[in-house]
Amino acid sequence: MINTRRARTSAGEHASTGPPGAAEPAAEPAGGTERRSALATVLRHDLPASLVVVLIAIPLSLGIAAASGAPMISGLTAAVVGGIVAGSLSGVPFLVSGPAVGLTVILAGVISEYGWAATAFITIAAGAVQLVLGVTRMGRAALSLSPAVVHGMLAGMGAVIALSQIHVVFGGQPQSSALANLRDLPGQIVGHHDAAFGIGIVTFAVLLVWPRISRVSLVPAPLVAVAVATAVSIGFGLTVPRVSLPDNPLSGMGLPALPVGDLGGILVAIVTVAAVASVETLLSAVAVDKLHSGPRANLDKELAAQGAANMASGALGGLPIAGVIVRSSTNIAAGARTRASSVLHGVWIALFVLFLGSTLELIPMAALASVLVLTGIRLVSLAHMRELWRHREFPVYVVTFAGVVFLDLVKGVLLGIAVALLLALWRLTRATVEVVEESAEEWRVVVRGSLIFLGVANLINELRRVPEGKHVVLELHVDFMDHAGYEAIDDWRSGYERALGTVRIDEVHDTWYQRARLGKPEQRKSLPGQLPRWFAPWSYWQNMHSDGGEPDAGTIIPEPRPGADPMMLGMHEFQRSAAPLVRPFLSELAERGQKPSQFFISCADSRVVPNMITSSGPGDLFTTRNVGNLVPRNDVASIGSSVGASIEFAVEALEVPNIVVCGHSHCGAMKASLHGGVREGTHLASWLRHAEPSLARYRACEGELHDPDMDPVDRLSVLNVVQQLENLMTYPSVREAVDEGRLTLVGLYFDISDARVHVVDPETGRLSPVDPATVL
Fold first, then answer.
1. Per residue in 83-94, is it b (16+ CB within 10 Å) or e — as a string?
2. Helix (H) or strand (E) holding 603
3. Which intervals carry biased composition (Low complexity) (predicted)?
4. Fewer Cβ within 10 Å of end Cβ, the chain: N or C?
5. Pairing state of beta strands 756-760 and 767-769?
6. Known binding residues
7. Could you list the residue range(s) of the whole structural domain that residue 697 is in?
8. Binding residue ranges for Zn(2+)
9. For residue 225, is it within any domain?
10. Domain-embedded: residue 729
11. Do residues 570 and 603 both lie within one domain?
């Protein structure tokens, strides 16, 4: 409401700035300013950026068409359609689409098999597949492909492109396969050192040197390299193969025709073109998203846009298109602000083709081939190899790369996916087994991971290392155990005990073995971190019941440990498993001393664990616990109490910024205060007199309970927290620190049954949820 009034006032003041009595100027139509601003953005930023993108798009489009064996005009047609159609519909505003290097190998095979007109039809069909994928929101699902497979595929394509186009640089012709290109390359090197090779050397030199010249590096190196190579070929009058375009570009655009041949092969070609174009587009879209702070990518919309553009490109006789990172990053670096830059770059290419076709025909083929050779080499990224090696995904990369280079793209990708799945299966189902001799008579075998049939052989081999007649603790940290795993353990255990040894199964993570033994095996993996033993009571993992009775129906516990002291077992477990983790923190705290951020006053109830409910560790909480979480008022009767000493030490010596009083549900002290039953003349009765002000507060507001459904004892526990916060203010050091803003008092209430912490309002006693945004 305030903003609306200000807006109206501002508008009114602006409208009435003329002389009194003068006619007010006509109001500008809504959106007029926005349109002028948008136009200014296009003229100032997008127009120059589109011209820069054109400079790199034309040589790449021509080179890709040549490498694919397609008509030259098809590459430029695809660039025009990619800019105008895909740019207009794009879900990634800064993404520039056009002929893609990653499709070169596929198109060369498709054109060789079915001819150019049929390839145009396949492009239309592939676009329809992409359109369906986009409409059905499959864009994000395509990103589930392993990055190792994708990078291996791109690297394989780069190697194939480089191997084929290097023959053109030497003045020859590329062969039909990577193996054939490798086989004939030595002869090509020896036999061809003509003008085409010289043009290639010039192009390579410019491509490598130009980006290092800082002041001119904004002009794309491929454009400069092709321009210099063309100028050298004309200046020296060299006779070399050059770009060939139809005299009338519009009449030279080939129309699509139905493919003739094996239907299965045609369908594979359609799916392959659609898949590779989609993957390259989606990967480029994700990369482009990281280069700017504008609108985020809509991958499903982008996939649909690519489908529509490919259908249009195929219908006009153009190559398949994809969103490409080279042109897109150039677009952003050149200052593009909207999708208009991508659209305009398509318009400029169309004008170049229609009116400057003769200029394009001066470009030597060796120059375009050199650009593609270097582009292909750069697809084989050492940085990606190192990253995949660190993440142990390199085998997937190598298999995909080799498959693409020496077989074909589809087989290479399928092989890579198969290896990725096998590697994932091995990792997910791998169990590690560690055998430790703890003493002359006791051995410990620790099993971690998922124990299924694939790991049984390794488990049995390790178990057989344990000498006969010993006491063995088989410690299971498993999140899944199939029947083969259970049977292997059970059979080994039976055999070992028959040989006069003893075995104790200690299940730490979950009770897989025990459930299987009772004929109730679990079918799903355990959630990670389910009930760690430092959260669980001793009775859960030390094979005992605090009430001395039998376990409830369906409860599964490990086997008993006769005569074991629970605290000793707990300390042993701490030293064995937790101490190595916490030792670095304790060592540092031992050297620099304690500096806790909270003084935590809680009840001595064994069910209330301050470090657990606050997720804190060593050095975080300075704690005082007593029956009823009581703070005696600072008077003569409380002089010398341990609580008062703790308060003064926390505030004056430790300078804690917060004091927390935490009450809880089902409190025995509050129950005794409310209902009596404590024997007079005892220390407990004397101590509970400090709860009398809380009881008086409760009785004073008994008819005004905020939650009438709350148990009276629990309501007294809440009001007791409020009272103890008041009692804290009777200590001079506390009051002084609070008044100076150095100390904050906080009340908490822990509901044991619900395992939930509430914040207590110190004025009203109302409970509110814990808010992570609250700063104490």
1. bbbbbebbbbbb
2. strand 598-603
3. 18-31
4. N
5. antiparallel
6. 603, 605, 664, 667
7. 595-769
8. 603, 605, 664, 667
9. yes
10. yes
11. no
